[in-house]
Every structure is written in C-alpha cells, then in structure tokens.
Amino acid sequence: MEKRVIDYMLVPLGLFALVAYHVWLLYRVINYPTKTIIGINAIHRRSWARAMLENLHNNGVLAVQSLRNNIMSSTLMASMAIMLSSLIAVLMTSGGKNKIELFIFGDKSEASLSIKYFSIMASLLVAFLFNLQSISYYSYASVLVNVPYKKISQDDEHEKLIVDFVGRSVNTGSYFFSLGLRAFYISFALFLWIFGPLPMFVYSFVLVFMLYFLDVNFHCGAIVDVSDEDISVRRPIKDEELGIIIGRPI
C-alpha cells in the first residue's frame, strides 16, 4: 500500500507541474506575445505571409515549398504518433506478468499497468490528431497563398482580409504542430511512469525547466511591424498593439 501512495503523490504532482506551466505560457502568449518565442514567431509568420502575397509571381513557388516542408514535418510526427500508439495497443493486449518485474518501485498491479499503457496511448493519439489539424491548415494555406487577390478585387479592405486570413491559417497550423510536439513530450513522461513514479516526477520538472528557456524570450529587440504599406523593421511595438496584429492563439 505504501508503494501505491508514492504513485498517488508523485504522478499528480508531475502532471500538475506540466499543466500549470502550459497554462502560464498560454497567459503569456495572449497578453505578452513579445516576451515569448511563440508570440514572436507568430508575428514573423504574419510578415512572411504578407511578403509572399505582395509578389506572387516571384514568391509563389517559395511559399508553396515552405508550406510543403511544414506539411512534411507534421506528417512525420503524425506517422510516428500513430505507429507508437499502435505499438502500445499491442503491448496492452499481449499481457504478461514478466513486464511488471521491470518496475523499480510503485504500484505493480496489472490494473496500474493497463492505466499507464492507456495514458501513453491516449497522449500519442492526441499528438496524432493535433498534427492532422496542422496538416489541414498548412494545406489550406498553400492554396490560399497563391490566390491572385489583386486581380480578383482592387478593394484595399478585401486585400487586408485575405492577407490576414492567410496569416492566421499559417499561424494556426503552427500552433497545432506545437501542441502535437508537446503531447509527445508528455507521452514520454507517461512512458517513464512504467518504471516508477519517481522517474516520471523528475522528468516532468526537468522538462518544465527546459521548456521555460525554450519558450521565453530573454532578448528584447525590434519587431517586424506588419502594416498595409510595407514590411520593415521599425520601433519595438507595444504588447497591446501586437495583440491586434497576431490575433489570439488557440
């Protein structure tokens, strides 16, 4: 019973650390986008979309190739996720008590083993679905980026709406790819849970520590300002202005 208590204490604490960090990160991305790498990348993707649409004759192929590379990355991640989830499903149905001897400590019951396998499989399936959504948005953006909107309509408002929509599609695809990648990170934490709650607990806090330095922008500099006239490096933009430029991530 004492070993089960360790699972009940350390595993929820590890998961809470991961969830709390990502809730905090979402708050920072929404309210202070220039202080996060995700927010800055979103601004640059909007600038990229406008630059591609400004000169489709020269940039059309480049835009499609760039989006195709993103589609290939999402496809690779989705393939890995569904393959690993299928492997976990096979392990769940194969049974066998010899696997339990691999545990260092913690709950060694068959019910606990099934819960661990199911948690890993669920996390991988979530990663698979996120990457599918990413592929969908990237594919949609690859079509929209080659629409000759200047020949369709000379209305400036219509042009602004198209550029904004393409930028949002590219950003949304990137958001789903990031979510799928983080689902992979969490699935590895659940995989370590098979060997006991302590490895999973330690990995969760190490992962939060590493993600903090990957997600937070420690360097303040000029941000590319997306305007209707041109794209140039201008003064640093306030967070309130950037909230209007990049929209709200999902």
Automatic annotation (TrEMBL):
Transmembrane segments: 6-27, 76-95, 115-132, 201-224
The organism's place on the tree of life at top rank: Eukaryota
Pfam family, one: DUF599
UniProt keyword terms in alphabetical order: Membrane, Transmembrane, Transmembrane helix
Protein known as: DUF599 domain-containing protein
Taxon lineage: Eukaryota, Viridiplantae, Streptophyta, Embryophyta, Tracheophyta
